[in-house]
């Protein structure tokens, strides 16, 4: 996709909104690299994946991705003998633990959610490795005492020797003959060794090793002789402890290294699942729909809302609602010329359509109404806003024209072109002439295009071309503001005289201004006004017919979906019945109403119940409450 257009349409801001719905850094990082695709097969796949994730959220809630983090870099660099820190091992272990719960979550989804099951197949079984890491490392990164029998013995010996050293020092600081030679009645540390702060004048009264003296030389820090051997033993044990920790880390590094490729595949699968979860969560929150994909270049958007305005108004918290627009292209016309006052409505309409396309081609559902249809464009081009370049010393007109000429060089019949304020920034007659030539070029290529302008000659252009049509951004003459509603089939007015009147212009000034309006313009406007009513009725009839068609198609799809659901439920009941009839004493079962697992003692089919040991208790459980283990409850952890 054209990078300039992605920037001007603020696709990065849409990705930031999407990233807020991710559950861990894996998904957020992948969303940061998300780009719209321009291959129809890939767009279909991405939308189907999102659709299946929306269904999964409704059935089972979000996947249990808590604890997962982006440890791919750690796993890639790990080698036996040059491993990770304790904190890094802990992060790897938590991520591997998450794969187990995610795998169980995906395994319990309906079989028809095939793309999610395919993701699950890419996630290996790392439960044993995750448990081993959990046995070794605490969340702080400290190696647990129980990581190995040898480490436990060493640390037990260290603690025993430390207690003995403390006893020696506690006894000494309570001995009167010792206390009187101390600078203060307590012991302190010199490195790893406990020492006494002895006055230099009494050095000979405390036999031991002098580790250092104070800056003034008045105090000597002495390790008493009776503690030296104990402290030496502690240091020796400390070295053995570090060797054992290194050995344990080496073993963990080896295990992770042996499974490195499978772990990296699983991490990528977790990242994709998290991104799909974000797409689905966004779709649910903003009442988005899956657009139908047309193969004939048809654009049909119902009640489309600019996604960033939706977020802005929601953050404001003032209850403002984004005004939705209806837009179509590609059926009876390929080009839409939007006119109206300079109040921002035209630009919002262009950007709304552009973002709908980018979102759909990135596999996102769009904030629009049911029945919305989009093709897969090979590229989206936009010229909007102030493109003036100070470095190139180009005027606004020259800068816009440079951009449009680039678009004309690159656009194909499969592209979408959006141009804001075509012909502006220069002499109106020349601007309109160049604008019409540009529109001719786009129409000649059969490129789908939406163009906004306030130049009158471009309004009449659409009436003279069979594959072009007008649209107007509705204007409220009372408030002097655009309502942002889009009316296809009618050109808009600049409403300059109405605005001038509301701003207090005198009647004499207004009459003189009206006198300067040419008869040709007046006649054109009268013809437009006469046709507006019938055209609006035709557009309304079209909308109603298409809505009825969509509802009928939707009812048919819902009926087919219900039939398939009944078939699935019947098959699931058949399998459950076979499983129940095969249950024997000693088999594990999951009890739904207790949300716990237990062991069958005996089956009492004549009573439609089973006696099940749950912990230390035996419970009579209705057979209908029994399910196979490997439950979703565990996966939700």
Topology overview:
Elements: H1 3-8, H2 11-19, H3 25-32, H4 40-60, H5 72-77, H6 86-107, H7 114-121, H8 127-136, H9 149-172, H10 176-179, E1 188-190, E2 193-199, E3 208-213, E4 219-224, H11 225-258, H12 260-285, E5 292-294, E6 299-304, H13 307-316, E7 325-329, E8 335-339, H14 345-361, E9 373-375, E10 379-383, H15 396-410, E11 415-419, H16 428-445, E12 448-453, H17 456-464, E13 468-476, E14 481-488, H18 496-502, H19 507-516, H20 519-582, E15 588-591, E16 596-604, E17 609-614, E18 617-622, E19 626-627, H21 632-636
Parallel strand pairs: 5-9, 8-12, 8-13, 10-11, 11-12
Antiparallel strand pairs: 1-2, 2-4, 3-4, 6-7, 13-14, 15-16, 15-19, 16-17, 17-18
Helix pairs in contact: 2-3, 3-12, 4-12, 6-7, 6-8, 6-12, 8-11, 9-11, 16-17
Report on this structure:
It is a single chain. By secondary structure, the protein is α/β, with parallel strands linked by helices. Helices cover 52% and strands 16% of the residues. It has a six-stranded mixed beta sheet, with helices on both faces. The protein has a five-stranded antiparallel beta sheet with strand order 18-17-16-15-19, with no helix packed on it. A four-stranded antiparallel beta sheet has the order 1-2-4-3. Helix 16 links the parallel strand 11 and strand 12. Residues 387-393 and 631-637 have low confidence and may be disordered.
């Amino acid at each position: 996709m054209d990078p300039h257009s992605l920037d001007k349409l603020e696709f990065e801001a849409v990705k930031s909104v999407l990233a807020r719905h991710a559950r861990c850094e894996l998904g957020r990082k992948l969303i940061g690299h998300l780009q719209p695709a321009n291959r129809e097969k890939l767009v279909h796949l991405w939308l189907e994946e999102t659709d299946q994730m929306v269904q999964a959220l409704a059935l089972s809630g979000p996947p249990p991705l808590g604890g997962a983090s982006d440890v791919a870099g750690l796993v890639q660099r790990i080698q036996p003998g040059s491993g990770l820190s304790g904190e890094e091992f802990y992060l790897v272990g938590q991520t591997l633990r998450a794969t187990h719960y995610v795998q169980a979550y995906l395994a319990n989804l309906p079989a028809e959610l095939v793309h999610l099951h395919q993701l699950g197949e890419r996630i290996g079984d790392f439960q044993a490795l995750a448990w081993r890491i959990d046995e070794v490392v605490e969340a702080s990164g400290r190696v647990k005492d129980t990581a190995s029998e040898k480490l436990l013995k060493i640390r037990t010996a260290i603690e025993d020797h430390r207690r003995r050293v403390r006893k020696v020092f506690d006894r000494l600081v309570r001995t009167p003959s010792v206390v009187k030679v101390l600078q203060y009645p307590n012991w302190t540390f010199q490195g790893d060794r406990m020492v006494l702060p002895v006055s230099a004048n009494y050095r000979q009264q405390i036999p031991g090793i002098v580790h250092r003296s104070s800056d003034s030389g008045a105090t000597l820090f002495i390790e008493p002789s009776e503690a030296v051997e104990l402290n030496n033993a502690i240091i020796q044990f400390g070295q053995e402890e570090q060797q054992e920790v290194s050995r344990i880390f080496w073993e963990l590094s080896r295990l992770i290294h042996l499974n490195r490729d499978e772990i990296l595949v699983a991490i990528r699968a977790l990242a994709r699942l998290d991104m799909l979860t974000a797409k689905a969560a966004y779709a649910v929150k903003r009442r988005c729909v899956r657009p139908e994909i047309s193969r004939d270049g048809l654009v049909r958007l119902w009640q489309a809302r600019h996604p960033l305005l939706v977020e802005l108004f929601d953050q404001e918290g003032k209850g403002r609602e984004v005004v939705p627009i209806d837009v179509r292209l590609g059926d009876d016309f390929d080009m839409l010329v939007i006119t109206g006052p300079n109040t921002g409505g035209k630009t919002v309409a262009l950007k709304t359509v552009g973002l709908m396309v980018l979102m759909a081609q990135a596999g996102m559902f769009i904030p629009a109404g049911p029945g919305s249809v989009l093709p897969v464009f090979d590229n989206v081009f936009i010229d909007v806003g102030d493109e003036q370049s100070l470095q190139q010393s180009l005027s606004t007109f020259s800068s816009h024209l440079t951009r449009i000429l680039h678009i004309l060089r690159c656009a194909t019949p499969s592209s979408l072109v959006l141009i804001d304020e075509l012909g502006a920034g220069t002499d109106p007659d020349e601007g309109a002439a160049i604008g019409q030539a540009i529109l001719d070029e786009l129409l000649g290529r059969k490129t789908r295009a939406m163009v906004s302008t306030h130049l009158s000659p471009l309004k009449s252009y659409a009436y003279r071309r069979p594959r072009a049509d007008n649209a107007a951004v509705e204007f409220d003459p009372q408030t002097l503001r655009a309502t942002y509603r889009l009316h296809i089939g009618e050109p808009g007015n600049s409403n300059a005289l109405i605005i001038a009147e509301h701003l207090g212009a005198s009647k004499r000034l207004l009459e003189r201004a009206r006198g300067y309006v040419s008869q040709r313009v007046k006649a054109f406007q009268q013809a437009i006004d006469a046709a507006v009513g019938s055209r609006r009725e035709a557009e309304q009839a079209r909308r109603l017919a298409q809505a009825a068609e969509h509802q009928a198609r939707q009812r048919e799809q819902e009926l087919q979906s219900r039939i398939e659901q009944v078939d699935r439920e019947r098959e699931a009941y058949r399998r459950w019945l076979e499983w129940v009839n095969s249950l024997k004493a000693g088999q594990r079962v999951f009890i739904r109403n207790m949300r716990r697992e237990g062991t069958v003692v005996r089956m009492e089919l004549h009573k439609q119940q089973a006696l099940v040991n749950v912990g230390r208790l035996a419970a009579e459980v209705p057979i209908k409450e029994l399910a196979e283990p490997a439950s979703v409850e565990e996966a939700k952890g």
